[in-house]
Write a structure and sequence with these properties.
Layout lengths: L6 H12 L4 H10 L1 E5 L4 E3 L7 E7 L2 E7 L2 E8 L4 E2 L2 H6 L6 E4 L3 E7 H8 L3 H27 L2 H11 L1 H6 L2 H7 L4 H13 L1
Antiparallel strand pairs: 1-8, 2-7, 3-6, 3-8, 4-5, 4-7
Helix pairs in contact: 1-2, 4-5, 6-9
Length: about 200
């Protein structure tokens, strides 16, 4: 895997994506970032732990999942240059029922909530960044909820191909099927008919 880039470059990337920043604000944002490396299969967060950070994936692939009736249900698959968090645990400061696993060797940058909020108090553009990250997280959750609520299996898969082509290429099919709330067999049929279209 390529060497991780500097925290300064990640701060710049976040600023470009979410909010313009002054030199001092970039310094403040950079001071918060904590680089983390995870091996393929490593647990980033386990059930019962408290999620105290927002994570920005520089490179890699993660999945958020939970257990229901003894089965793993994939709730989110995150790829390069995306954010993930367990939002309820983060804000209530309570143990999470979700788990996060690295599906590939992953380099992520943690933004610890308490430190981020402390620097946001004095930096308006960091407040904007924080708000936009949370907005993005809520929108992603809503898109997934609507996908499984309203779309056919075929349309769910098609939409995911459009929204997350890298996830479709890189994530194991069993997790994609779980995320789309279908069996692996249904997903195989859907993929076969989609390829014929």
């Amino acid at each position: 895997m390529k060497e991780s880039i500097s925290t300064r470059e990640i701060a710049r990337e976040l600023a470009r994506k979410y909010s313009t920043m002054t030199h001092d604000e970039l310094d403040a944002l950079e001071s918060v970032l904590v680089p983390k490396r995870f091996a393929k299969g490593e647990m980033i967060l386990s059930e019962g732990e408290i999620c105290d950070s927002i994570y920005y994936i520089d490179r890699g692939l993660i999945r958020q999942f939970y257990f229901k009736n003894g089965k793993q249900i994939t709730e989110h698959i995150g790829e390069d240059r995306t954010i993930f968090m367990c939002i309820e645990s983060l804000f209530k400061e309570e143990p999470t029922r979700l788990q996060v696993e690295a599906l590939e060797p992953t380099i992520a940058y943690a933004l610890p909530k308490q430190k981020l909020e402390a620097v946001a108090l004095h930096n308006v553009n960091i407040q904007i960044l924080y708000r936009k990250i949370l907005e993005e997280s809520l929108i992603i959750s809503q898109i997934h909820a609507d996908l499984v609520r309203f779309e056919t299996a075929q349309d769910r898969y098609r939409k995911m191909c459009k929204l997350s082509p890298q996830v479709i290429l890189r994530a194991p099919l069993v997790y994609i099927a779980s995320y789309l709330q279908m069996t692996p067999e249904t997903l195989s049929r859907v993929r076969a008919t989609t390829l014929l279209d």
